[in-house]
From TrEMBL:
Residues 76-96 have a biased composition (Polar residues). Residues 68-113 are annotated as: Disordered. This is Myosin_tail_1 domain-containing protein. It comes from the Eukaryota.
Length: 113
């Protein structure tokens, strides 16, 4: 009986060591995966921050360019802009005109086309 008890204790101790080993391996694997993911996310974050900085620089450059254009020839740019808009739109209907014509055509009960 004493031998059976000692044998059982040894088996349980071995089983416990095996479980602890498996647990430690799984914890290490999980930590490695987490560390890899953190490294990938850090790289992605760095890339995105660089992209944001580039876009901010481009935006600032465009703002300065617009400010320079406004300060440089404000009267000329307004008249030339309004002239180009009227020239572009001459002879064309706006999209809302097309929609209104289409709706007015479909409002009648007895349309003959």
């Amino acid at each position: 009986m004493e031998e059976d008890r000692k044998k059982k204790e040894q088996e349980l101790a071995e089983k416990k060591r095996a479980f602890e080993k498996t647990f430690a391996e799984r914890v290490n694997e999980r930590e490695a995966k987490i560390n890899e993911r953190v490294a990938r996310l850090d790289i992605r974050e760095h890339d995105l921050k660089e992209e944001i900085e580039l876009r901010k620089a481009e935006l600032e450059r465009l703002r300065r360019e617009v400010d320079d254009l406004r300060r440089g020839s404000i009267g000329d740019s307004k008249t030339s802009l309004s002239m180009s808009m009227t020239n572009e739109n001459s002879g064309k209907n706006s999209p809302t005109d097309k929609i209104l014509k289409k709706k007015s055509g479909t409002l009648g009960l007895f349309n003959r086309n």
